[in-house]
Amino acid sequence: MPACKDAVQDIFVKELRGYKPDPSAKSADVSQVKTFTAPAAPSVPKVDEDISAAVAEYARDDATVTASAGTPAAGTQKVEYYFEEEAAPEPAH
């Protein structure tokens, strides 16, 4: 009795050996892909005026922002407002 072979495996191997790829499939991606072109290099911005005087003036400027001590800044409230004071326990008789 000959060796029992798997019929599905035989059909699969037969079809696999008989497969011939479509020759037009090799160039199918050519129409789908664009060629890469590098973007142009950015140019350096040109400053027509000398800004060293403006930088020196900024460095000399001694402007400071201070809040007045008497009034709180807008939108702020005291912290005590958020916490309720705990009631002292009543002494026992």
UniProtKB/TrEMBL annotation:
InterPro entries given in the database record: ATP_synth_F0_suH
Highest taxon of source: Eukaryota
One GO MF term attached to the UniProt entry: proton-transporting ATP synthase activity, rotational mechanism
Name of the molecule in the record: ATP synthase complex subunit H-domain-containing protein
Pfam families linked to this entry: ATP_sub_h
